[in-house]
Amino acid sequence: MPPSALPSIPLIVGPTAGGKSALALELAQSLGNAELITADAFQIYKGMDIGTAKPTIAERQGIPHHLIDVRDPRDPTPFTVHDWLRAANAAIADIQSRGKLPIVVGGTHLYAKALLDGLFDGPGADPALREQLRAKGLPALREELERADPQAAQRIHANDERRTIRALEVFHLTGKPISAHQTQWDSKSSTSDIPHPTSHILIGLDWPSEKINPRINQRVKHMMELGFLDEVRALRASGAFAPTANPQAREALGYKQLLDHLEGRRSLDDAVERIKIDTRHFAKTQRTWLKRLRLTPGSMWIDANSIPPTDWAARVLERIAAGPASLL
User: Fold this and answer.
1) pLDDT per position as a tens digit, 216-249
2) 309/239 same-domain check
3) Which phi and psi (to 5°) does residue 181 adopt?
């Protein structure tokens, strides 16, 4: 099938605990010829299952899932948005070559934006500069970021050392805030040489914060009931969170807080409550990304508060059936 004849690729976004995965799976089952591509920065890691809400083999119900379990958390090599974008586009090409429809789903909205509009050509990593920045300590780094790039400081969580350092690294190396680099997304002026599909249908699940927060709290409770603490304990024993392992994995929501408990810095109750609080903060950051994604031409947004989940897939299927002309 030539590219011009391929149906639009559904790209499902929305807040954590908002029902994205269930919608994607129902779409794939209804279509009968679809495969899922995960856009999640932590479901890529083997063994990090419960805390990332990774669908189990049974939950996948025979639907192929791509970009899950592709990295060992003991591997210190960073997995960047460039890495994900290359892998996602390769998976999309493979799925389409077999006459099937890719469905992309996930809560890492930087990945979604990169898939839609490409990436800005930021500077490469500077290990020496990163060490200099890290030595200042996170409070000092946050103060510097708030002065140098208030937009990035607002978007990046106060406890996210890795992204704080990256934002300052870009500022030091280019003299320009990372948020200013990223404005090229707004004018579609990306110059990335990573190819990306040209026909998408962005599906957004729209939740008010007062409705998503209880869902987050319930999800954390359910994760603990499923054995999340035992999962973190086993990963820690395997060396997945050792100093020589991948620092991104250790910073994952839930894992970081339970590690604090296992290493004697928090009580279990305090760690669980901290997971809920930090996940709600993460959902707030996601809302900032979703505001930007809402500007995507032809996007479809589902009012998850008023439309029952049983109706979501049918509405998306109607849009897909309408074809590319409905996206204009």
Assistant:
1) 999 999 999 999 999 999 999 999 999 999 988 9
2) yes
3) -60, -40
